[in-house]
């Protein structure tokens, strides 16, 4: 009987450990990054993490090595819970405050940029693991200086786009937004994809450099 009880205890403990492993791993299931306008990390990934073409991506790899670029869809905070401004410090928005992605925070005026119009525009957010959540898009204020570390105060206080569970097509979320007018030159689009409890408090972030003509 003692042996049977011990075997039963081992099975129970093993099941509990497996269950806890699943629960811990669950937040990592929702992955993605902005595809258009392309995010910094996805741009560097498409250039090739080992031998990127652009000067900015080369610098990012030099600072943070090439291996983080392969995880282009994992710039996240696992327990953001809608508190992004509180947990991500100024100067580290593009890395989500994670040292792993510190190369993305480099203040430079030569990050590859996408030319955008103001007004109606459909952003596409590449999702390698779709999951329910709210998307928010922020744009930098006129006068933004890309050669200085990005701060929360560089962004408009409210998002120009916010939607729960936008439609998805061809592997990407379709974010149909209206970009505010009054901007010219180089700017940055900052995205937050926030999941919600009880599913998960995880959030994903991306920085997309843009040019307004």
Molecular structure report:
Residues 1-25 form the signal peptide. Keywords: Signal. This protein is an alpha+beta fold and 213 residues long. The protein has two domains: 1-28; 31-212, chitin-binding protein cbp21 (Coagulation Factor XIII, Chain A, domain 1, Distorted Sandwich). 23% of the residues lie in helices and 28% in strands. The chain has helices at residues 2-25, 40-47, 55-64, 67-70, 84-87, and strands at 32-36, 76-77, 114-116, 119-127, 134-139, 161-164, 168-169, 172-179, 185-194, 203-212. The strands form two sheets. Strands 2, 3, 5, 6, 9 and 10 form a six-stranded mixed β-sheet that branches. A four-stranded antiparallel β-sheet has the order 1-4-8-7, with no helix packed on it. β9 and β10 (203-212) form a beta hairpin. It is globular and about 40 Å long. The chain starts with a helix and ends with a strand. Residues 1-28 have low confidence and may be disordered.
């Amino acid at each position: 009987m003692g042996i049977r009880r011990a075997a039963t205890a081992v099975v129970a403990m093993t099941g509990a450990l497996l269950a806890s492993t699943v629960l811990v791993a669950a937040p990592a299931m929702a992955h993605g990054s902005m595809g258009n306008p392309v995010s910094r990390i996805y741009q560097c990934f498409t250039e090739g993490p080992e031998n990127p073409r652009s000067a900015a991506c080369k610098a990012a790899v030099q600072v943070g090595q090439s291996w983080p670029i392969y995880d282009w869809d994992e710039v996240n905070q696992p327990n953001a819970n809608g508190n992004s401004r509180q947990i991500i410090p100024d100067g580290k928005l593009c890395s989500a405050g994670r040292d792993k992605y510190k190369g993305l925070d480099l203040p430079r005026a030569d990050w590859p940029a996408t030319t955008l119009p103001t007004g109606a525009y459909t952003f596409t957010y590449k999702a390698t693991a779709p999951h329910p959540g709210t998307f928010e898009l922020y744009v930098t204020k006129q006068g933004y200086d890309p050669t200085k570390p990005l701060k929360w105060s560089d962004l408009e206080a409210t998002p120009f786009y916010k939607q729960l569970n936008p439609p998805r097509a061809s592997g990407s979320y379709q974010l149909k937004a209206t970009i505010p007018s009054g901007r010219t030159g180089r700017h940055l689009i900052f995205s937050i994809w926030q999941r919600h409890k009880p599913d998960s408090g995880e959030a994903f972030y991306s920085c997309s450099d843009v040019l307004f003509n």
